[in-house]
Amino acid sequence: MRWWCCVFAFVLTLHLDIIAAKSAAQPPPNAIKNKPRTMPTTRPAADHLSTAYYANSCPNLEAIVNQKVNAWIKRDSTLAPSIIRLHFHDCAIRGCDASILLNYPGSEKRAHASKTLRGFALIDEIKAEVERRCPRTVSCADILTAAARDATVLAGGPFWQVPFGRKDGRVSLVKEANTVPQGHENITSLIDLFQKLGLNIVDLVVLSGSHTIGRSTCSSIQQRFSNFNGTGKPDQSIDFNYLNSLKRQCKLDTNFVNLDGTTPRTFDVAYYTNLEKKMGLLSTDQLLHSDSRTSPIVDALASQAQLFTSQFAVSMVKLGNVQVLTGKTQGEIRRNCNFVNS
């Protein structure tokens, strides 16, 4: 099996290199002149994003975000995975438009699936400072995306350039927020969700690797302890000793347990090696290793730390580009992330 993992890792890396080379290549001038005329096509919204978007209008944006994120995470290191999770919950519903930040009855923030989300106060503080320095210029969606990148770096993960230019959405519905994965779905439904977002199976496995840090409430895993899926028995896909350890930690549903049972404060590939040992906390985690469509990717990432970190950066850029609102006719620049502009 090890030789297959190495081959897969090589092919995956080669595939990414080819994509990067194609995007960087520029046709020679005569090719442009001789190219036959075609009807204009609509560019994907993400093509309108740019790492230099605020270079003139708010040149200190990234410094402001970094300073605030760094200060908060110094006080509470558990906030880093929470910001990454908040970013995912935003992008999974209506794209990366800061709809998760809207706060009123019936909004995504009030959904049951959002009850354990954290980091809203940090985003509000960043927004207040950005508004003071660059009024009505920077979207809440861009702030959240940049904060997720900085949180990743501060947790020991990779750095990537964040393209900016997103606008904030005006719609946020509680019923839509409850469709975000909760840790008990099957792999097919997860693959389908990611495909609808424009993400592929590699992105699914790689972004699940964010569970190398962070915690979950015990209520999310209680169904694995007994009568799993109506069997009258515990989940057979979980290691016996690990199961007993979790039971001791989960005397109350409101208790927290680490998503990574071995190196919970280190951004590394232990998440994937844990899956190989039947030590995935959520059933959706463990299924990544037992499903034939995703298990080769798990094994490749488990043995290739550099592959994981480099691809995590790529997949996070793709996540941040999901169904973005751009231009003058879409969305708005909220003055307060909690409310649409009046």
Strand order of the largest sheet: 1-2
Topology as H/E string?
A: HHHHHHHHHEHEHHHH
Mean pLDDT metric:
90
Distance between the termini: 59 Å
Number of strands: 2
CA-based shape: globular
Query: What portion of residues is helical?
Result: 40-55%
> What structural class is derived from the secondary structure elements?
mainly alpha
Number of helices: 14
In what range is the share of β-strand residues? under 5%
Summarize the biggest pleated sheet.
Answer: 2 strands, antiparallel
Any low-confidence stretches, pLDDT <50, length ≥5?
A: 1-11, 13-41
Q: What is the radius of gyration computed over CA atoms, rounded to a whole number of angstroms? A: 21 Å
Binding site for heme b: 211
Pfam families: peroxidase (PF00141)
Enzyme class: oxidoreductase
GO molecular function, one term: heme binding
